[in-house]
Amino acid sequence: MSNITSPSNLLGAEEITLVTGIYRITGALWIVPLCLVFYDFMLTFEAEVQYFWSTQGGTLTRVLFFVNRYWPAGNLVFHNIVLNLRHPEPDFCVAWFQYTAYSAGAQHLIVGGILIIRIYAMFKCNKRLLVVLLTLYALWIGSETVLIGLVTSRFKSNEALRDIFTGCAPTNIPTWCYIYWLPSLAFESLLLILACWKTIQEASSSFWTSKIMVVLLRDSVLYFGGVTLFTIANFLAWYIAPLPLYGMFVGCHIGFQSIIGSRMLLNIRETAAKGETQASNFSSSSTNIRTLLKFRSRSISSLSSLSSISDIDEKV
User: Fold this and answer.
1) Which pLDDT tens digit goes with each residue over 125-159?
2) DSSP string, 1-51
3) Residue 131's pLDDT is what?
4) Are 56 and 278 in contact (CB under 8 A)?
C-alpha cells in the first residue's frame, strides 16, 4: 500500500507530475455525475410532477424522494465549484473535506431508508426481517459516522500542490482510511444478496409475478449491484493510494445513488398507479374477476402484494 499521504512524499518532479495528472482526471470524474444527474432531471421531471407533485402519497416517501433527488445535485454543483477555485484557503479546504465526508454519510442515511422500505416490501412486509434490517442500518450509520470523524479530523490542506492545480487537495490522510467504506460495503452487499435471492425465488416459481414485484426486483438488483461496484472502487482507490485517488470515484458514487434511488421511487409510483387503474377496470366486470379467481388463484397473492406495497408507499 502506498504511503503518499504528505507533501514530503511529493518532492520529486515525476511524482508531482503523476499526482497532478490524477487530480485532473479526478476533477473530470466529478463533472460526469453532475451532467448525468441533470440529464436524468430532464428525462424524469414530467413523471416527478405527475407522481410526487400532483398526487396524494406518504409524507416520508416524498421527503426521501426530494432530498435524495435535489440535495446530491446541489452538492455536486458545490463540489465542482470548489474543485475549480484558484488558491483556496487551507481552512476552507479542511472544512470542505469534512463536509464532503459528512454529506456523503447523510446521503447514505437517506438512501438507506429508501432501500429498507423496498426490501421490506419485496419480502411481503416481513416484520422480523424489518427488525434485522433496521438494527443493521443503525450499526451501519453509527459506525460510518465514527469513522468519518476519525478520518477527517486528521485532514489538512496540501500546500505542496496548492499552486500547481485548482481546488483543494488533502494531506495527512491516515493509511487506514479505506476502512471508512467497509460498513457501506457490508450493508449494501447484504441487500444485494437479499434482492438476488428474491429474484431467483420469483424466477424459479411457476406462478405469475405481479408487475410491481418485477419492478422492485429489477431496480433493486440494478441499484445494489451498481452501488456495490462504486463502493468497491472507492475502497480500492483509498487502499492503494489515498492521497491522489481520494476523490476519484466519490462523485460517481454520489450521483449514482441519487439517480437510481429516485428512479426506484418513481418506478414504484408509476407501476402502482397503473396497477390501480387495471384493478378498477377489473372491478367493472364481475365475470372477469370470477374467471381470474378460478383459474389463477396465485394472482390473489400477487395482487395482495401489490396492495401491500402500495399501502406502504401511501402510509410512509
Assistant:
1) 888 999 999 999 999 888 988 888 888 887 777 77
2) -----SGGGG-SHHHHHHHHHHHHHHHHHHHHHHHHHHHHHHHHHHHHIII
3) 93
4) no
Q: How far apart are CA 275 and CA 208, in angstroms?
A: 15
Q: What is the DSSP letter of 220?
A: H
User: How many CB atoms are closer than 10 A to CB 295?
Assistant: 8
Q: Are 123 and 70 in contact (CB under 8 A)?
A: no
Output DSSP code: residue 53.
I
Residues in the chain with pLDDT values less than 70: 1-20, 55-58, 160-163, 205-213, 215-216, 241-245, 275-316
Domains of the chain: 7-315 (1.20.1070)
- Report the alpha-carbon distance of residue 79 to residue 219 in Å, rounded: 28
- C-alpha span between 101 and 78 (Å, rounded): 14
pLDDT score of 207: 61
| 68 in Cβ contact with 107 (< 8 Å) | yes
Amino acid at 130: L
